[in-house]
Amino acid sequence: MMKRDVHITARDLLNAMQFREGDLGRIGILSGQPQRIEMCLEILGNPIKNFSAFGYTLWTGEYKGKRITVGNGGMYAPDAALVTEIVCEGGVDVLIRLGSCGALRTYIDIDYVVIAEAALRGDGVTNYYVNDGFVPRAERELIEASSSIFDGKNVHYGTVWTTDALLRETKEIINRVIKEGAIGVDMVTSPFLTIANLYKRRALAILVVSDNLITGEMGFFDIRFFDAEREMVDKAFKLIEAIDA
Amino acid sequence: MKVLFLQPPLGGWVTWGRHIAINVNHAQLAANLREWYPEIEIKVLDCRALDMDERKMIDAINEINPDLIYMGDALQTTGVAAIAPRYKRAASLIKQQNKDVKICVGGFYYGANAPQILKETKEFDFIIYGETEVTLPELAKELSKKDPDIPSVKGLSYWDRGEVKVTAYRPLFKNLDDLPLPAYDLFPMEKYIGFGRIRNYVETYHSRGCPNGCRFCVGWTNYDPRGNSDWTHYRIRSAKRVVDELELLERKFGAKFVVMMDEDFNVYRPRIEGLIEEALKRGLNVKYFFMGRAPYFLRDKDLLKELRKAGLIQCLFGLEAVDEETLKKIKKRITVDEVEETVIRCRENKIGTVITWMVGFPDDDERAIKDRFERLDQIDPDIAALQMMTPLPGIPMTPEVEPYIEERDLSKWDFQHPVVRTKYLTREDLGRLAAWANREFYSKPGRIQRILYSKNIHLFCRLAARSYVETVDAHARAATKGEVFV
Ligand code: SF4
User: Of A11, A208, B57, B449, which sees the most CB atoms within 10 A?
Assistant: First the structure.
């Protein structure tokens, strides 16, 4: 029978990577898409690679006097949970996710931005961390700080539903989560916020809209989506500049 | 005698967005006419630039009341042969209004096929057989006489009592430096726009022909087949004269981006050296693009840094295929490694890269096309311009591709629609694979961000790339559903 409480912990992984306290910045940007990380690295001064584990790589550099860690934080709930836990354990205090989502309102168009105030847990991972009633939430101060940078009619704040099954976004399920208040759907935000909440870290998920489940419009390859992605990265750094961290 | 250079309403390549360029052929011919026969009155009507529909075009022509109307182009980039139905329709509308006005066409596509096309197009009175530079001015001069002697004008196809006749072969114009600079002052220069966004945009044409003579190249169609492979007789404007033109465009017309449409600009190293020297000496700010062959770019790789300083921000070279057998069959005379290294050297020097590549050779199957794409993807230029085999009459390869032609509607003969099948693929398969490849290329994470946002390439390169990214869906509609854009 197994003797340890947990087979591998985030601390075990950090140790295996020769991690030293202080290697990571106090602020972390995570994104599943490598190109967003590349864009972050272009902005970051003197980035140094911290380590790669299971294909997830973290770099730490400087921006306007603040040390920032950026990394590909997973595309789906299980790997997002893994990376989020590693950075929390590694001492990152403020976590910003730069992701994408599908819109659950007709008025939220491709290239708009959804900022997740809370997550509706449709993923399987968070059940291993918290009880049924747990609602993962973004930090209020970060939401407020973001509102002066991500402003205008193209930005919407609300609840994001996280699913594990991209190809099972059925009418029944989607209409149910809309009734429960979700304005967007993604595959990461729930574990990202849940784990940040458990570690008592400050966290915010910023999501560019790639498609709309109500109108059926797909914008994954739309230039508006690419441009919005670029703008999200630039604005994330403005947010970092504005916050006290 | 009043000659009207008419660009009728016309679209453009779907991948280039709302691209409205000066007609370089018209600008040159207008200059020649003005210099050689100053007594002839010249008018220009560029309906595309002035956003005029057919009705407005006819009204404007009625007002101008010309004796001779010329339509034609030197460049494939206006829309390959898809321009032909547009010119025919314009001619037909004009003739309905005024039977007496003479209409002449020439240049790309017409040059090699004048008598055949004239037979099928009663709306035209003349088609220039071969190079247009001297023939059109001479025709105008002849028509201004009381009893024009049309057979005396060399390089012409014309009607004679219901029969199509051709005049004697016209030898090529020898020294391009003896031509006046194009008559830009007659054209609405402020209206031209590149790739939907670039203002102060001008296209130019400083050389003629290409010594390489690839067997698939549509450049052949500018030339009279009675000549001695005239397409391969490469002639240039000297570097000094090229820079004179750039200087004129910058200082007088405010040009910021000049796309040199010479099919093969970099054949001679001294011309490139001269271009650098002159452009730097005159302190020009205008940025430019030219097309050439990868082996020449590599020959001149030590010049790339200076070229960038002298204004070159983007260049184009052909890959077309990646397997030796196909490259040999089409007589491309490059290696894939040369193309790859050219991209690397250009990128080191912050020069944007465009690669042309092709699908639709008779032996193409799905694997061949996918392998070709895979290699192109690895080479990773900033822009990949896919051209579907378009076997225009007059091209050396056409006879062997002829049995595979399945689409005869010329409005689709623009490189963006499949007009042939191959031994192994239907026309629909070919269109689907073209759309697939374009989508793959312009949705690759990392590449998208580089070509749209990286400051390592000039803004104009990024704007051109933006046009390709934006038009992926429209390109797919052309390739798979037959939607017409030219
Ligand atoms: S090198 Fe280019 S321009 Fe010259 S013949 Fe070949 S395809 Fe045509």
Answer: A208
